[in-house]
Design brief:
By secondary structure, this protein is mostly helical. The chain has one domain: Vanadium-containing Chloroperoxidase, domain 1 (Up-down Bundle). The protein contains 13 helices and two strands. It has helices at residues 2-16, 21-26, 36-52, 56-63, 66-69, 72-85, 88-102, 106-133, 164-183, 188-208, 214-237, 242-248, 273-276; strands at 253-254, 260-261. A two-stranded antiparallel sheet has the order 1-2. The longest helix has 28 residues, at 106-133. It starts with a helix and ends with a helix.
């Protein structure tokens, strides 16, 4: 079974470093999308996942201890954190995008759009791996070694690896932190600490709820972080991608009489009357 786990981990890492197919088709990167630093990140995630794997059951028992589960503060915090990630992360991303368009703040809209795109990319990778790997969730009771290729396609109980919530949380954290380093460098440390701290809390809450093993969390964190960093890097090093032109080009639409039509402000530019001219 450890050999199977190593094979599945290799699949995870290969999938996590594959760039979004649509993004590649939009434009040719001026610089390599993946760097030596990314290789170090992938290697660190691989080692971390492999190291934690033998400890999965131990951490599960600790968090499922009756006294820990009876703690109402932990129950409330876990519920809040889980909801904040899904669907909260998409709501926050959409709100930032809408606020940026309404207030004519391109940077804010940029953060909302790219953060949401990172969420989507990360979750597509994680969902695909869940289906392929078919690892049993902790509450099933069959232990951390219960894998079966393709089983996740049929049953939700066997979609444990990697953690989708953790992937989404770290994708959002990486995207927002990366954008902050460009637009608000003086605040990047604070923003990064808040975002990554919240993402880590999301992963722990999934373990507390007996939905995931510790190794699921580590793998999800790695996939999400890579998704967030790559989406932001790609768009900023290749300005004018299809998604950016569609959603970020222009905020106010002329009405033909020298004024602006506020009812079009949230509409993607490509769908507006001015955008079709």
């Amino acid at each position: 079974m450890p050999r199977l786990h190593s094979i599945l981990l290799a699949i995870t890492l290969v999938a996590s470093v594959a760039p979004p197919a649509r993004a590649q088709a939009d434009t040719i990167a001026r610089r390599p999308l993946f760097t030596a630093g990314d290789a170090l990140l992938v290697g660190g995630v691989a080692l971390g996942t492999r190291f934690i794997y033998p400890l999965d059951e131990r951490y599960r028992r600790r968090l499922q201890d009756s006294s820990t589960q009876a703690n109402r503060r932990l129950q409330t915090l876990s519920a809040i954190v889980t909801t904040t990630v899904a669907p909260g992360a998409y709501i926050v991303g959409g709100t930032l995008y809408a606020a940026g368009r309404l207030a004519d703040k391109p940077k804010l809209a940029d953060v909302g759009l790219h953060g949401t795109e990172a969420l989507i990319v990360g979750e597509i990778v994680a969902s695909t791996l869940k289906i392929i790997i078919g690892r049993a969730r902790p509450y099933v009771g069959t232990g951390p070694d219960d894998f079966a290729l393709g089983r996740g396609l049929r049953r939700r109980d066997y979609k444990s690896f990697p953690s989708g919530h953790t992937t989404a949380a770290f994708a959002a954290a990486a995207a927002v932190s990366s954008e902050a380093s460009r637009y608000a460098p003086g605040q990047r440390v604070l923003i990064g600490a808040v975002m990554y701290g919240g993402a880590a809390a999301a992963g722990i809450s999934r373990m507390y709820n007996n939905q995931h093993w510790a190794s699921d969390i580590i793998a999800g964190a790695g996939i999400g972080t890579l998704a967030g960093l790559k989406v932001v890097r790609f768009h900023h090093e290749n300005p004018g991608t299809i998604t950016d032109r569609f959603f970020l080009a222009g905020s106010l639409i002329p009405d033909g009489d020298g004024g602006q039509r506020i009812r079009w402000m949230l509409l993607p530019a490509a769908l507006s009357p001015a955008g079709r001219r």
